[in-house]
Amino acid sequence: MRVFVTGASGWIGSAVVDELITTGHEVVGLARSEKSARSLDRKGVRVLRGDMEDLDVLRRGAAESDGVIHLANKHDWSDPVGSDRAERASVDALGGELAGSDRPLVVASVLSGFPGDRPVLETDPSPAVGPDSNRGGSENLALDYVRQGVRTVVSRFAPSVHGQGDWGFVKFLVDAARKQGCSGYLGEGTTTWSAVHRPDAARLLRLGLERAPAGTRMHVSAEEAVTTREIAEAIGRHLGIPVVRVAPEDAGAHFGFIGGFFARTMTASSELTRAALNWHPTGPTLVEDIEAGAYDLV
């Protein structure tokens, strides 16, 4: 297949590109910068220059592909409304271009926003509906395109997609620990996150692109629930610093913006995903990656 990948040079996207090429697919990658374009070109990726707000470029990439994996997101924490608006518009552009083709559109989504009283299931619909909701309601918008002949596949990512060089949420926790001279957890440390090793995540996205039926919600989650205290203790052991309890009201001062996410339970079962796509994660756990120094050079 010729696969158009947005976010192709990002943390997850670059691993997905490698997975696709290794398994015989041709890749067209969206590149915002010259640096990203060069890195993709070295892999043998055909480059489309632009970003997720260049809707005509997105439509062109989709029109010339056999399928799309949409991973790009602005992640502008200073302008969440603008990020949500851009995410919705990009999904609408891609879905509109693929309408009537039965080609796959694999769309990244998140576990935040669900109630935290139990792990999220693949059968749980996203509570984010409409343009003013989280990520612009892009998950539900993408699923609406199933009725228009798009093989939409939603990929809900664990909050930690970890591995050597990870610059995601855990990187900010490590940075805060280094700055504070101690590794903190909030309250009793019983809040939990799901986690997945980066190559395992990339493999699942490729399987979803190839096999998943229209309307599938995949949970990109290998470990269902890692406590925030376990994460803090692993960071403390690796850095050789004390592990401390942080009062919830001090989350911002201790952790910065990541404190708000660290306070949320974001967990998901992937039982249905594994059975449907014969996905068997094999990578190290989040704690094992932290203790092996995955965040030393980030």
TrEMBL record:
Residues 117-139 are annotated as: Disordered. InterPro entries: Epimerase_deHydtase, NAD(P)-bd_dom_sf, NAD(P)-dependent_oxidoreduct. Residues 3-77 form the NAD-dependent epimerase/dehydratase domain. SUPFAM superfamilies: NAD(P)-binding Rossmann-fold domains (SSF51735). Pfam families: Epimerase. This is SDR family oxidoreductase. It comes from Streptomyces griseoaurantiacus.
